[in-house]
Amino acid sequence: MILDATVAGRTIRVEVRGGDGRYRLTLDGAPLEVDLAGEPRGLSSLLVSGESHEVGIEKRDGGYTLVFPGESFTVDLAAAARGTTAPARHAPGPARLVAPMPGRVVRVLAEPGADVVAGQGLFVIEAMKMENEIKAPRAGRLQEVAVREGQAVEAGALLAVVG
Fold it and tell me: Residue 19: which residues within 8 A CB-CB, separation 6 or more?
C-alpha cells in the first residue's frame, strides 16, 4: 500500500508492506523495519530499527494521532495517486504535485510565480463531501498551476509544478 503521510506540514510518500505487527516501510525511498505490539494499558510497544518506544495510537478521520511521552503527532494519510512510486529523496528538478484522489478543486490558494514553503496549502479539493488541503511538497517557486477553481480532477492529475 502506498500512502502520502503529512506530519507537521511535511508530506512524505510511505509504502507499507507486511502485517500482523511486523512491517517494512519505505519513507521517501528510505527503508525502515517496524514491529508493533499492543499492551493492556491501551499503549503499544513500537520497535523501530531496534529502538523501542511506548506509544498511544488513536485512530481519527483521515489518519492517526501518535502520543509519545511528552509529545504527540498528528499524521494525516491519503492514498497516493495510482501508478506512482515512492519518489527519490530530494529528487532534483521541479516537483510535480498531483491530485491524490478524484474530486473537485474548491480553492486555489497560490498563484503561479509565488514562492512557497514546504507544507504550505496550495489547493483545497473536495472528495466524498470532505475538503482536503493539498500542500506544497517542498519549498520553491510555483512554476505552474494546472487547475482552476471548480474543475473536476482525477487521481494523479497534475495540479501544479514547484521548482
Answer: none
The answer to whether 134 touches 124, Cβ cutoff 8 Å, is: yes
Place of cell 498528528: 74
Residue pair 123/98 in contact by the 8 Å Cβ criterion: no
Distance CA 115, CA 45 (A): 41
Digit-coded pLDDT (tens) for 9-44: 788 888 888 888 888 888 777 888 888 887 655 678
Which residue has cell 483521515? 62
The per-type count for the chain, helices as H runs and strands as E runs, is 0, 16
Domain boundaries, the chain: 2-79, 95-162
Output DSSP code: residue 154: -
Which top CATH class is 95-162? Answer: mainly beta
The CATH T-level fold of domain 2-79 is: Glycoprotein, Type 4 Pilin (3.30.700)
Cell of 89: 529523496
Contacts of 40 (CB under 8 A, 6+ apart): none
- Whether the model clears a pTM of 0.70, i.e. scores above it, the answer is no
